[in-house]
Write a structure and sequence with these properties.
Helix content is 60%, strand content 6%. With 164 residues, the protein is mainly alpha-helical. The protein has a two-stranded parallel ribbon with strand order 1-2. The chain starts with a helix and ends with a helix.
Length: 164
């Protein structure tokens, strides 16, 4: 039974990864040619991981997000989320910076913020992104600093993911 469960997990993980790769091939064909995975480090102690590049304003990413979370939970594979905000999505980059801010509070907070953004994606825009983030922070019992990235470190992390 344990071997069958492991096989089912592996098949699920392969299906999710194939779907993500298909999405990348469809949405970002230019990235495919340069992506050799040589710079994708696995979490310490992991033999396999689910690595996903997300644009928080992308409707397809919003649809895939719950399935990716479920695959990570079902397989026990670590989930590594990278940011890939595309230029035409006007609030995706600032949203990724906010997600990074919450992730520094805790991995779960960053993941919860991403889920919050995807669930509220249709109503978000550049003018209300900050207030939505404040609403999220307040619900968690924390305050959002006036400047979430005073030294530009979070912006650099998001840009590094995008460049990868």
């Amino acid at each position: 039974p344990a071997r069958r469960a492991l096989g089912a997990r592996a098949r699920l993980l392969r299906a999710v990864l194939a779907g993500v790769m298909l999405l990348l091939c469809t949405v970002v064909p230019a990235a495919w040619g340069a992506a050799d995975a040589s710079r994708l480090d696995l979490p310490k102690g992991a033999d396999v991981a689910i690595v996903v590049f997300e644009d928080l304003q992308c409707p397809d990413c919003a649809k895939a997000h719950p399935q990716i979370l479920e695959a990570a939970k079902a397989t026990g594979a670590p989930l590594v989320i990278r940011d890939f905000p595309i230029a035409r999505h006007t609030w995706a980059f600032p949203a990724a910076i906010l997600a990074r801010h919450f992730a520094f509070e805790s991995y779960a907070a960053g993941l919860d913020f991403r889920t919050f953004v995807f669930l509220n994606q249709a109503r978000l825009q550049p003018g209300n992104l900050r207030s939505a983030a404040e609403q999220f922070a307040k619900a968690r019992g924390v305050s959002l600093p006036e400047n979430v990235d005073p030294d530009g470190r979070l912006q650099e992390l998001v840009q590094a993911d995008h460049d990868l």
